[in-house]
Amino acid sequence: MCNLQVHVQCAHRFYEVLPNEVESAELTVEDAVSQILLDLFGKGAVDEVTIRFPSDLRMGLQYCSIDIRAQCFCQFFSLLPRTQENMKHALVKRICSLLKELFGSVNIESVALSPSPRVYEYDENNENQAECCHQPAR
């Protein structure tokens, strides 16, 4: 399993999401990202979505930041090649498309995929077992 962390900055004159609707927006983003993980990895889990609206306005624009923490199975990535670069590209494309609908201008500042601290045991009798793509080949 891999840990996924995404950090996004948004700036727009008007959002579909208002600062007093943050909890609802977080749940909407969580559901949508869960669907993206399902589409790209066959399964996954969103651990946390945090949306922050700073109080200052610059040049009439509203700013917000979005942090997403999730887990996915990199080894089950549905697109080829199964490289970290391709995974990040697919995630950015889909998450950006989703967030543009809610927040207008979106800048995905970072996407990080890292192996989960949990170590998977290799069992040669289990053909369906897959290892994290970040672990060295045996």
What can be said about this structure in brief?
The protein is α+β, with helices and mostly antiparallel strands. It contains 2 helices and 4 strands. The longest helix has 20 residues, at 22-41.
Care to describe what's here?
- This protein has helices at 22-41, 84-103, and strands spanning 2-12, 44-52, 62-72, 106-115.
- Helix 1 (22-41) packs antiparallel against helix 2.
- It is elongated, with a radius of gyration of 17 Å.
- The chain is built from two helices and four strands; from the N terminus they run βαββαβ.
- It has a four-stranded antiparallel β-sheet, covered by helices on one side.
- Helices cover 29% and strands 30% of the residues.
Descriptive key words:
138 residues; alpha+beta; Alpha-Beta Plaits; four-stranded antiparallel sheet; 2 helices; 29% helix
> Which CATH class applies here?
Alpha Beta
In spatial order, strands of the major sheet run: 2-3-1-4
Radius of gyration: 17 Å
The level of helicity is 25-40%
How do the helices and strands line up, and which of them pair or pack?
Elements: E1 2-12, H1 22-41, E2 44-52, E3 62-72, H2 84-103, E4 106-115
Antiparallel strand pairs: 1-3, 1-4, 2-3
